[in-house]
Amino acid sequence: MKEAQTSTRLVLPYGDSRIRCEVRRSKQRVKRSIAIHVEPDGRVVVDAPLQAADPDIRLAVARRLAWIHRRMVEVENRQLVVTPREYVSGETAVYLGRRYRLKVVSAQGGNQVRLRAGYLEVAVSNRSPETVRHELEQWFQARAKEFLPTRLAMMSERLRWVKAIPPLSIRRMSRQWGSCSPQGRISLNVGLVRVPRECIDYVLLHELTHLREHNHGPAFYRLLDRHLPNWKRTKARLDGLAEVALIR
């Protein structure tokens, strides 16, 4: 259940480039506390108190422009090394953080995807890249709908403030791993089924914590520290896997 926020844009020059930020103001945020995040897709998000003045926000961002630029370059470099997929045998596919060798075989009957001895085997009657990609997408979606609700239920049982398992939707999300609506409905990126279990648990804890703390204030992070002391390391690992959010 997230508190309503206001959102504006901020653009600051840095060298020959311009850094664009999304500024989110919330009345739940502690006074004078301004947090700056560079998201896995390279977006810059600034969380500020509702009463924060524009000059104060601009100054806070200006002081961290060098850090912001470094993080944006890191994101860009990660994206550059992602090789376009051809959907042929020998490529790598990732499921729950483990890498499998893709094996495409011809099939006379219906199409099928299955894990076999370190391989992710795709049996298709038409071996075109479009067909193989479609079958892989369907398989990952099915695994996500099977695995993620079970994991959400397990995580919910550990948190005293979660009285019932919240409604869940699993869908493609191009910019985030998960979200929590004002009504307490959790949405998860189908690509989560490709990352390690510890990263999935971090995202689940993050969204479930929003049922108790509706913003990213100190109380929110205290709960993360209490229930997942190494969450910062796990988040950094997850950020490094942003390229697997979409099936390529």
TrEMBL record:
Residues 32-239 form the YgjP-like metallopeptidase domain. InterPro entries: UTP_pyrophosphatase-like, YgjP-like_metallopeptidase. The keyword Hydrolase applies. It holds the Pfam family YgjP-like. Keywords: Hydrolase. GO terms for molecular function: hydrolase activity. It comes from the Bacteria. PANTHER family: UNCHARACTERIZED PROTEIN YGJP, UTP PYROPHOSPHATASE. This is Metal-dependent hydrolase.
